[in-house]
Amino acid sequence: MSEPLTTATSILNPASIVTRYSRRLTKPWKVSNELILFLGVWESGILNGKNFQRHDVTDGLILTAYTDDRGNPTVGMGHLIVPADRIKVGQAITLERAREFARRDLEQASSALHRQVGVPLFQFEFDALVSVAFNCGAGNGIADLVAQVNNETYEKMFDFIRYYRRGHHRTLAYRRYTEAKMFAAGVYDASH
Amino acid sequence: MPLTKRLGLVFLLLPLSVSASARTNPECLKHLGGTSFDVNCYGGLTTDIKADSETIYRKLADSMPRGNANRKLLDEYMSAQAAAEKFCVLEKEAGTNWMPSPSPNTYNMWDGIYAECVYETRKQQNARLRSLLKSYKNQD
Asked: Using a CB-CB distance cutoff of 8 angstroms, which residues of chain B are in contact with residue A192?
């Protein structure tokens, strides 16, 4: 069942109950498979085939565990393997398990948005915000983003996301553009 | 054009400054914008460039007569560049209110920015060593 956007009680005029409808969705939101595909392409470089490190990529995810350049065992969408995962370097996992790791890694970003966002969102709007939060690191990194979306000025979010926390790092410019497109038009296109 | 389709062309166009044993395709620099992608792209290229710098360092060191004061200077330069990596934490934490990574269990853009800084530092070192070797060889 959807949660209410906000709950308020008026003591001034008890008869002034206002019911508000929106085509947008209320909490709880869930990360979509389309977002995992989108982020997979950003993390692996391609949707399917061999990436720049010659790892096999399936739907944006690397299914055979490998050691990354910092020496961390890694699999899927850049998931850093922990002992509880019980995966050894060189071991292959299923696509569904890789997606589950991705969902788990996105949980921190998703939870932060659930706590802080108080306006309804389309699925693609929520996914776009999760992508930005995952990239910036949930916490102070998304404070301005949350403040902007809570203004309900949805039409201004395209420009806001485009320039959000990318600083002088031109490499982030195109990622932000694709995230802005996702928010504004529901386009999940990470090809670059 | 997809990354894989460019591989053949890239190998032909690899700059001479990249070691023949380089493992990471420099083409990844054109596809930055991820989180672990950026960490691995910059990280892999840094590993390659450090190996190349080590080879040049050996050539320079071997070219110096025993007891020459420049040998000590060269060693100090190499140590200073290795130590310089730690200052890249400033780039990383300037964007996070001077705090450690906001998502310690996964990479984020700040890890990529750190990796970029280390790569740029090592690239500069490599260019300088290469220039020194060229200067030395031009004397022959």
From this structure: 31, 33
| E strands, A53-189, in order | 56-58, 61-67, 73-76, 79-80
Specify the 3-state DSSP secondary structure of A25. Answer: strand
This prediction's pTM: 0.84
Residue B10 above 50 pLDDT? no
Provide the number of CB pairs (under 8 Å) joining chain A to chain B: 117
Confidence at A122, pLDDT banded by 50, 70, 90: very high
In 3D space, the residue among A84, A128, A124, A125 whose CA is nearest the CA of residue A104 turns out to be A84
pLDDT at A192: 85
* CB-CB under 8 Å, A138 with B101: no
B44/A53 Cβ within 8 A: yes
Across the interface, whether the CB atoms of A192 and B33 are under 8 A apart is answered yes
| Average pLDDT of the residues in A87-115 | 96
Single out the residue of A74, A52, A72 nearest to residue A63, CA to CA: A74
A56 three-class SS: strand
**Residue A108, min C-alpha distance to chain B (Å):** 8
Coil, helix or strand at residue A66: strand
Long-range pairs of B42-46 with CB within 8 A, sequence gap ≥ 24: B42/B112, B42/B115, B42/B116, B42/B118, B42/B119, B43/A68, B43/A69, B43/A70, B43/B115, B43/B118, B43/B119, B44/A52, B44/A53, B44/A69, B45/B119, B46/A69, B46/B115, B46/B118, B46/B119, B46/B122
The answer to whether the CB atoms of B110 and A137 lie below 8 A apart is: yes
CA distance to partner chain B, nearest, from residue A189 (Å): 13
Is it the case that residue A1 has pLDDT exceeding 50? no
Which residues sit opposite A58 in a β-bridge? A61
Flag if B46 and A69 touch (Cβ within 8 Å). yes
